[in-house]
Amino acid sequence: MSFIQIIELRTKEFDKLSALSDVFFEATEGKRTVERSVITRDRNDPDRYVLVVFFDSYESAMENSNLPETSQFAEQQRAILDAPPTFHDLDVIEDRA
């Protein structure tokens, strides 16, 4: 079953967050299990960002979560965020095009 993680973030330093994400994606090339990720910004609250991260399964998401680079990324990310991130873990039960 496909799995999506939605992560809500607050930051005034999006450029730093984006650069940090670039480093993570380079460091995990060939190892990460992320199928796709989308970053959005709230039109009504420009310091609020929502990431939508797609995985093949919950298990592959946990595999990605257990990468040492993921832990390092999360630690560095905390210094840039205005508040702790909020996570929503979702099993995909229907997907229509």
Mean pLDDT: 96
Please give the number of β-strands: 4
User: In this structure, how is the largest beta sheet organized?
Assistant: 4 strands, antiparallel
What coarse outline follows from CA principal-axis ratios? globular
Strand coverage percent: 25-35%
Low-confidence stretches: none
Count of separate DSSP helical elements? 3
Could you estimate the helical fraction of the residues in percent?
25-40%
Structural class: alpha+beta
Distance between the termini: 17 Å
**CA-based gyration radius:** 14 Å
Report strand order across the widest sheet.
2-3-1-4
Order of SSEs, N→C? EHEEHHE
Describe, in plain words, how this protein is organized in 3D.
It is globular and about 35 Å long. With 97 residues, it is of the alpha+beta class. The model has no long low-confidence stretch (mean pLDDT 96). It contains three helices and four strands; from the N terminus they run E-H-E-E-H-H-E.
Short descriptors:
four-stranded antiparallel beta sheet, about 100 residues
Secondary structure: elements and pairs:
Elements: E1 3-10, H1 14-27, E2 36-42, E3 45-55, H2 58-65, H3 68-78, E4 86-91
Helix pairs in contact: 1-3
Describe this structure in a few short sentences.
The protein is α+β, with helices and mostly antiparallel strands and 97 residues long. The chain contains three helices and four strands.
